[in-house]
Amino acid sequence: MDISNMSNNMRFAVLIDAENIPHSCIQSVMKEIAIYGTPTVKRIYGDWTNPAVSGWKQDLLENAITPIQQYSYTSGKNSSDSAMIIDAMDILYTGNTDGFVLVSSDSDFTRLAIRLREAGQKVIGIGEKKTPNPFIVACDKFIYIEVIRDKVLPAAEKAKAKPAEKAKSKPEAAPKPKEPVKSIPEDIITLISDSVSDLAGEDEWVFMGELGNLLVKKQPDFDSRNFGFKNLSGMIKSIPRFEVDFRQTADPNIKHPYVRDTEA
């Protein structure tokens, strides 16, 4: 099953490494996971006697995540790794999950991701951009926290902002122009063109959904949001060499996007 075609009925075990993930991102992470399936197991690992992870408390309560205590027996070592790996294998053997979400920026979970995929589980990795490449490519799909992190002001700041807006007597200044979208690297354009070529039939057109699946298979951290686009169609439409055609389906409200490489 392709990662982008996952049913949201898929059951995921979500295992979080508290020592390698900022607690401020957890709501964004849980919202992202909901796109791919249902988190039936939610556990987070850390030494909860350590003040460095004390900021997690409220986030765990709000998201119903079970904290697993793992003492740091040796200074400078991440004690959570082994506990998380052992739990992952225990969960795997219950047969009650369709996949795992490993939330960490630590390459120590590379072998775990590989082992879970060998057992037929889908593996989604979520971590910061500092995550080493071996862990990224060991997952079916890897998502960067920096891309999905909430950018909404906290409720308290919103409440303060509202009275200030009402008190304004002068007309508001014209909104600042949006920042230009980041340019798409040449190697990514080559990745897309090669993938279109791999899938194209005699008419040269490729269904956008198939293209998206192949791009993630080739490069697990591929995500149009990494380049400032909400979806793959918008990203490809911005590249002059590609042509996008939206074709009507049997449902009058649904059109399917197709793409072809005009320079092929």
Name the features:
three-stranded antiparallel β-sheet; six-stranded parallel β-sheet; 36% helix; 264 residues
Describe the protein.
- With 264 residues, this protein is of the alpha/beta class.
- It is 36% helix and 19% strand.
- The protein has helices spanning 26-36, 57-63, 80-94, 110-118, 133-138, 145-148, 155-166, 186-199, 208-218, 232-237, and strands at residues 11-17, 38-46, 66-69, 99-103, 122-127, 141-144, 206-207, 242-248, 255-261.
- The strands form 2 sheets. The protein has a 6-stranded parallel beta sheet with strand order 3-2-1-4-5-6, sandwiched between helices. Strands 7-9-8 form a 3-stranded antiparallel beta sheet.
- A hairpin with a 6-residue loop joins strand 8 and strand 9.
- The radius of gyration is 22 Å and the shape is elongated.
- Mean pLDDT is 84; it is low at 151-170 and 175-181.
Total count of helical runs of at least 4 residues: 10
Helix share of residues?
Answer: 25-40%
N-to-C CA distance: 29 Å
Structural class: alpha/beta
Give the overall form: elongated
Q: Rg to the nearest angstrom? A: 22 Å
Return residue spans where pLDDT drops below 50 for at least 5 consecutive residues.
151-170, 175-181
Largest sheet geometry: 6 strands, parallel
Strand/helix succession: EHEHEHEHEHEHHHEHHEE
Strand content: 15-25%
Mean pLDDT: 84
Strand arrangement within the widest β-sheet reads: 3-2-1-4-5-6
Number of strands: 9
